[in-house]
Specification:
By secondary structure, the chain is an alpha+beta fold. The chain is built from eight helices and ten strands. Strands 1-10-9-6-3-4 form a six-stranded antiparallel sheet. A four-stranded antiparallel sheet has the order 5-2-7-8, with no helix packed on it.
Length: 275
């Protein structure tokens, strides 16, 4: 995020960057489907308007729209909110030094024989890892119904998002219920459905959001490390457990969100009531 200086809070510099690039906040709201009030809160440094998993997702989308370095923005947000940035988002030290010193006029040296040999070794190691992964998948598939934990993408065909934040804000009134759930990682989520219903899922701030349909009498089981975001189309049609404990969802055919924060040991159930 070269355009953003360290002399002012990063959210103020993000707003300054947006203004300099002549980008209206309403344009970002239209493209990202994020409520305009939430975007204004981000620019003012108010990060308490929603559970942190939402704030982080919205900040990432906002940073992309204004052309900032998303990894650096999220690291500064995590630091400000005293959160731990997921390890996969932290660049290696070598990469940081390279990015800090590279210039468009610099001519990169021709790779040496040693560098080529190193590259060959890396490719060979990667191939071994890939083949080993294929072997593991085949072993799991051959075990049948032995209770192995699978990702939702292996169990359902991805579909387009069925419910957006914009639709929820327009048609429903959200109500949050926070509960203290003192569970120990790793966390295991299970979900089953009495009727076919849509769901959206992300774990550990990965940025990989699964949007799929859960079939009637179907179920999924997955493991995550610290954070969970789950949106369900109809709460009454779904049963969800976390580490074997049932989550008390509202008995209504309206959407619901489940957010679990492993750092704060807090479970948030967000129910939506029609306006």
């Amino acid at each position: 995020m070269n355009e953003i200086q360290e002399t002012a809070p990063f959210f103020e510099e993000l707003k300054k960057l947006r203004v300099e690039r002549d980008i209206e906040l309403a344009e970002i709201a239209t493209r990202t489907k994020i409520n305009l009030d939430y975007l204004e809160s981000l620019e003012s440094g108010d990060f308490t308007f929603l559970p942190y998993v939402y704030v982080r997702l919205f900040m990432k989308a906002y940073a992309v729209e204004v052309g900032a370095e998303t990894d650096e923005v999220l690291q500064q947000l995590d630091h400000l909110m005293d959160r731990q940035t997921p390890a996969e988002e932290l660049p290696a030290n070598d990469e940081l030094h390279e990015e800090a010193h590279l210039d468009e006029d610099v001519v990169l040296p021709t790779p040496s024989v040693n560098n080529l040999s190193s590259s060959v070794v890396k490719v060979a190691v990667l191939l071994v890892v890939v083949f080993f992964g294929v072997w593991v998948v085949r072993q799991i598939a051959g075990e049948g119904e032995e209770g192995s934990i699978e990702e939702p993408s292996q169990m359902a065909i991805p579909v387009a998002p069925k419910i957006t934040d914009q639709q929820l804000n327009a048609d429903f009134v959200p109500t949050d219920e926070d509960q203290e759930w003192n569970l120990e990682p790793p966390y295991i989520l299970t979900m089953s459905a009495e009727e076919e219903t849509w769901y959206e899922l992300e774990t550990d701030y990965s940025g990989n959001i699964t949007s799929a349909n859960l079939n009637r009498d179907g179920d999924i089981s997955l493991q995550f490390g610290e954070n969970l975001y789950l949106r369900i189309e109809r709460a009454a049609d779904v049963s969800v457990t976390l580490n074997g404990t049932p989550i008390p969802l509202p008995d209504e055919t309206h959407p619901a969100d489940i957010i679990y924060d492993g750092q704060e040991k807090r479970l948030t159930i967000r129910s939506y009531t029609p306006r």
